């Protein structure tokens, strides 16, 4: 459901940790509804890239334009806070608040940061939990849920903020194999609703099926990108060929 409307442009993004340049002059753009999958070896900078996109990590240089709003390392914290509310992120570790119920986990941020009413927050939590198939767990605590269920709640929690884009960093990597599918299904359903998504994953069948574009990163660079067919079936760069062969 990708459109031609660009919503995110990343220009010359670099990130250094001390002398270690982890992202090197990365530029790309994402259109509304596009599903972008990022693949690449461990340590290639995938997580840092996602963290820079939502300013969990401040880039060393470069600019992000999101829906017309320009962000750079000099942006004020107030601007960044507003920006972050529009970007949902799901991590490998589910990071639910252990002392809060599923409902409280989902409604906390909308109540505090968006200022929605309690009844609005509740109605939205119901809808989201229905979508991820967990309405019956609304009053459960995270410890009562399987890893797959916790991750589905984490996705619902991110969606409760009504983000315009969702970032996933190896959302299924910490799960037992038999629980991976239920989380990928929720992500697939979300893609079909037209959500713009950037997904770091090792699930190559999922990437083939769901993505509009695959980006291969290595050593802080975008080495190659294209449709899943192009990148998986006929990669051009030696580093991509070696990586795909090893899968
Ligand atoms: P990937 O997600 O592709 O495995 P990362 O973005 O996690 O890669 O890491 C890329 C490089 O950046 C690695 O060399 C890692 O050690 C380094 N790095 C990541 N985060 C930090 C940090 N907070 N401080 C110092 N180095 C970091
Ligand atoms: Mg990572």
Automatic annotation (TrEMBL):
It is a peripheral membrane protein. Residues 8-244 form the ABC transporter domain. Keywords: Amino-acid transport, ATP-binding, Cell membrane, Membrane, Nucleotide-binding, Transport. GO terms for molecular function: ATP binding. It holds the Pfam family ABC_tran. CDD domains: ABC_HisP_GlnQ. InterPro entries: AAA+_ATPase, ABC_ATPase_HisP-typ, ABC_transporter-like_ATP-bd, ABC_transporter-like_CS, MetN_ABC_transporter-like, P-loop_NTPase. Its main location: membrane. Gene3D superfamilies: P-loop containing nucleotide triphosphate hydrolases. SMART domains: AAA. It is found in: Cell membrane. Belongs to the ABC transporter superfamily. This is Amino acid ABC transporter ATP-binding protein. It comes from Bacteriovorax antarcticus.
């Amino acid at each position: 459901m990708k459109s031609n409307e660009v919503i995110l442009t990343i220009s010359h993004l670099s990130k250094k940790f001390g002398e270690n340049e982890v992202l090197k002059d990365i530029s790309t753009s994402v259109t509304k509804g596009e599903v972008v999958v990022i693949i690449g070896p461990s340590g290639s900078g995938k997580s840092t890239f996602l963290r820079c996109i939502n300013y969990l990590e401040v880039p060393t240089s470069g600019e992000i334009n999101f829906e017309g709003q320009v962000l750079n390392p000099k942006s004020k914290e107030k601007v960044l806070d507003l920006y972050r509310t529009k970007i949902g992120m799901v991590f490998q570790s589910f990071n639910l608040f252990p002392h809060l119920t599923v409902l409280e986990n989902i409604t906390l941020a909308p109540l505090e940061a968006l200022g929605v009413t309690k009844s609005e927050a509740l109605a939205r939590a119901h809808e989201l939990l229905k979508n991820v198939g967990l309405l019956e767990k609304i009053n459960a605590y995270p410890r009562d849920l399987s890893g797959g269920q916790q991750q589905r709640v984490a996705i619902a929690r991110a969606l409760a903020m009504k983000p315009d884009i969702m970032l996933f960093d190896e959302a299924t990597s910490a799960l037992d194999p038999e629980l991976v599918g239920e989380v990928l299904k929720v992500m697939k359903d979300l893609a079909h609703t037209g959500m713009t998504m950037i997904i770091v994953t090792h699930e190559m069948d999922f990437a083939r099926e769901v993505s509009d574009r695959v980006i291969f990163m290595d050593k802080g660079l975008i080495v190659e990108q294209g449709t899943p067919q192009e990148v998986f079936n006929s990669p051009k760069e030696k580093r991509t060929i070696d990586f795909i062969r090893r899968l």
